[in-house]
């Protein structure tokens, strides 16, 4: 499991052959990896539903995009847009029905004003230079997925209205405290890898299925007791010396506590659905007792990693 965070499932990887792809209906236009500086020579069909401009050299928005009344998915990933460059989006009422907006990997220093997009379901501003979540209060209440990884964010804020949010990605920032999450009652995935968090505080959330707190400053596994729906828990590269508070997580399938300071395995006997247990790079001196620790999950368990422990 790579430290850090999660990428949107619909991201398009780099390395395309530079051929424009347009479906026969004229609904989708993919201009990935063309290294375009502008769209002057590109025909933009009026009926577009999806427009992907990933991996180009764009810094300004073509005004014709603002006339695409049917546009639902729009990606500007990996371009050269700064705050001023994306500002025209704020006033393009014709495309206000947009459902997915990807501004990942640009030069933004703040959350752009996307209040005009009342139906926005996915918003991605990862890999920018954003230091604050100020501005998120204007994002649609219907948002389902929010990605703000690899920025310089120091505080979790302005999320209170996002009660329909399912995925929150804040990995690779400068967060020290888990806070202001209590209204995200439908949150299923929380990605906070590569931050500076010392204490787990899930603010009463109970629908969480996946949590990543890899590469933080945790010393304890306490704090997950009420997350009864939890299926995947990633806690590698911390300072955890003891497994505790995990016995109530009966739906847990994946537990990653590799690269910590564990000297023994405990509190997982009741995890009957456990499939993957990652314990590599710890301080476990003996295999004695491991059979008892995993007795409850013997029928489901398929993988145990123990490399780089003294017992090996």
UniProtKB/TrEMBL annotation:
The superkingdom listed in its UniProt entry is Eukaryota
Positions with biased composition (Acidic residues)? 10-23
Q: Which PROSITE patterns match?
A: LRR
Matching InterPro entries = Leu-rich_rpt, Leu-rich_rpt_4, Leu-rich_rpt_typical-subtyp, LRR_dom_sf
User: GO terms for molecular function, please?
Assistant: kinase activity
Question: SMART domains given for it?
Answer: LRR_SD22, LRR_TYP
Segments carrying the region annotation (Disordered) are 1-25
Q: Where are the transmembrane segments?
A: none
Question: What are the entry keywords?
Answer: Kinase, Leucine-rich repeat, Receptor, Repeat, Transferase
Output this protein's name: Putative LRR receptor-like serine/threonine-protein kinase
Report the source organism. Apostasia shenzhenica
């Amino acid at each position: 499991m790579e430290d850090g965070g999660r990428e949107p499932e619909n991201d398009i990887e780099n390395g395309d052959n530079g051929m424009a792809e347009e479906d026969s209906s004229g609904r989708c236009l993919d201009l990935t990896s063309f290294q375009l500086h502008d769209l002057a020579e590109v025909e933009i069909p009026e009926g577009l539903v999806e427009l992907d401009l990933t991996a180009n050299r764009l810094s300004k928005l073509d005004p014709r995009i603002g006339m695409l009344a049917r546009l639902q998915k729009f990606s500007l990933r990996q371009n050269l847009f700064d705050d001023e460059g994306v500002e025209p989006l704020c006033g393009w009422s014709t495309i206000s029905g947009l459902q997915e907006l990807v501004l990942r990997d640009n030069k933004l220093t703040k959350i752009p004003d996307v209040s005009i997009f009342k139906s926005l379901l996915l918003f991605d501003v990862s890999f920018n230079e954003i230091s604050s979540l100020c501005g998120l209060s204007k994002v649609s209440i219907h948002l389902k997925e929010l990605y703000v990884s690899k920025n310089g964010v120091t505080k979790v804020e302005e999320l209170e209205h996002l009660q329909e949010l399912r995925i929150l990605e804040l990995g690779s920032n400068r967060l020290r405290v888990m806070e202001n999450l209590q209204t995200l009652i439908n949150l299923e995935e929380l990605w906070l890898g590569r931050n500076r968090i010392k204490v787990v505080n899930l603010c009463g959330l109970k629908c969480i299925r996946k949590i990543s707190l890899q590469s933080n400053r945790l010393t304890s596994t306490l704090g997950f007791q009420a997350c009864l729906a939890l299926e995947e828990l990633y806690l590698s590269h911390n300072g955890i010396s003891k497994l505790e508070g995990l016995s109530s997580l009966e739906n847990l399938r994946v537990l990653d506590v590799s690269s910590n300071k564990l000297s023994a395995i405990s509190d997982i006997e009741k995890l009957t659905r456990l499939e993957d247990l990652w314990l590599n790079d710890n301080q476990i001196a003996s295999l004695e007792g491991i059979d008892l620790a995993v007795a409850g999950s013997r029928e489901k368990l398929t993988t145990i990693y123990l490399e780089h422990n003294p017992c090996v």
